[in-house]
Design a protein that fits this description.
By secondary structure, the protein is an alpha+beta fold. Helix 7 packs across helix 8. The strands form two sheets. Strands 1, 2, 3, 4, 5, 8, 9, 10, 11, 12, 13, 14 and 15 form a 13-stranded mixed sheet that branches. Strand 13, helix 11 and strand 14 form a beta-alpha-beta unit. The longest helix is centred in the N-terminal third of the chain and has 16 residues. The two termini are 19 Å apart.
């Protein structure tokens, strides 16, 4: 049967694009539907990312039945930073069919080719600051907040369509209290040195929230500038992300290291709102989804340690261990005793080493793929 593909142009088509995964994963107990309102925000001009970059959304059908979707992403900030003619794909979902996957990847590649791109990388949803990668290992676990989830065969489809691994990302499980006792002397020396140097750890201030977020954006971009694929966030993007997180995370779950009124490090943890979202049918808040969300939000007992960073000139002083120690205390105060630290780049030796030292268990692996944009016939690109 012939696979047809169509670019999303109307609001009704956008609705179908957003809702397709609910049908695809209806028998999967680990799947957690995205809130429809959040997806609509992401894919419209309200999203600050789309004020400087472009996306195109495609739906694949067989006999008028939707069998797949994909987003092609032209990230102008990435191109300004890396100048590598790379475009991206994201939000990929499809039935287990090489033909469907090939048509979707070709549609995204052709759209990017018209913009001068010579390679395609993904999935990024929509950037590396958002959820990215296909889940590659750890399918027995439910996804944490703002982390991807997919069928195992997605990786096989990618490889059959000529994609190759570009980067792996890890998630570490931290149960109860991290094993920091063995580093007690290191922590004591660290806290003493921090005190002597005028460094202090505090939570974000609600009273001075905008000022703190401005400082946090500055140190966030500086800490990540050398990480693979990192794209600095502008003011609108960072404030949008911060306001989203503020709705689901207590302010004390964001800790900063401050010196002379400037931030030199940070850690942000987010209660796993997916524990509540899994009870909201099809991601719809109305008519009763909102009440379920409020009820189950009170029962959250897990969290994601989302981002942690320390400026390079302060690395090697144990500040990162101190931040893990402090954020664990905060989470315990909210009756949260299990967390996932994610995601961690496979080549981030410092962060992987720290998590292994505190006996974090690597439980999930995600993979980002890439390939050159090919101009050959579709059939010749499918690997047998």
């Amino acid at each position: 049967m012939e696979v047809e593909v169509k670019e999303v142009k109307t609001r009704q088509e956008l609705k179908k694009f957003i809702q397709f995964p609910q049908k695809l994963y209806k028998e999967d107990p680990n799947y957690v539907s995205e809130l429809q309102l959040s997806m609509e925000f992401m894919l419209t001009r309200k999203n600050p990312f789309l004020q400087h970059s472009q996306i195109a959304l495609f739906l694949a059908t067989i006999n008028k039945e939707i069998v797949g979707r994909i987003a092609a992403i032209h990230n102008t900030i990435h191109l300004e930073v890396y100048n590598d003619n790379t475009g991206f794909f994201g939000l990929f979902e499809a039935i287990d069919s090489v033909e469907v996957a090939q048509v979707l990847f070709r549609s995204a590649s052709d759209w990017l080719k018209e913009k001068g791109m010579t390679q395609i990388v993904g999935p990024t949803n929509l950037t590396t600051n958002d959820s990215c990668g296909f889940l590659f290992d750890g399918f027995e676990y439910r996804p944490m907040v703002m982390m991807p989830y997919n069928f195992k065969y997605y990786n096989e489809l990618c490889e059959q369509c000529g994609f190759e691994k570009r980067m792996d990302l890890y998630s570490y499980e931290i149960k109860e209290k991290p094993v920091l006792e063995k580093y007690e002397n290191v922590l004591k020396r660290c806290f003493q040195k921090m005190n002597d140097s005028g460094l202090k750890i505090r939570s974000l201030s609600m009273k001075h929230f905008n000022e703190d977020i401005t400082k946090l954006r500055n140190v966030y971009n500086k800490c990540n500038i050398n990480n693979w694929g990192f794209i600095p966030l502008n003011e609108k993007e960072f404030f949008s992300m911060a306001n989203d997180l503020k709705r689901i995370a207590p302010t004390d779950c964001a800790l900063v290291v401050e010196k002379d009124d400037e931030f030199i490090g940070f850690v942000v943890a987010v209660p796993d709102i997916n524990q509540a979202f899994q009870h909201v049918a099809n991601g719809k808040l109305l008519p009763f989804g909102f009440l379920k969300l409020l009820w189950y939000k009170q029962k959250i007992n897990e969290a994601r340690i989302m981002i942690l960073g320390v400026l390079k000139e302060y690395s090697g002083q144990g500040i990162d261990l101190a931040l893990y120690h402090k954020i664990t205390e905060v989470l315990h105060s909210h009756n949260i005793y299990r967390a996932e630290a994610s995601f961690v780049l496979e080549n981030n030796t410092t962060m992987n080493s720290i998590l292994q030292k505190i006996e974090g268990k690597r439980i999930k692996e995600y993979r980002i793929y890439g390939k050159k944009i090919s101009f050959e016939a579709i059939s010749s690109e499918i690997k047998q």
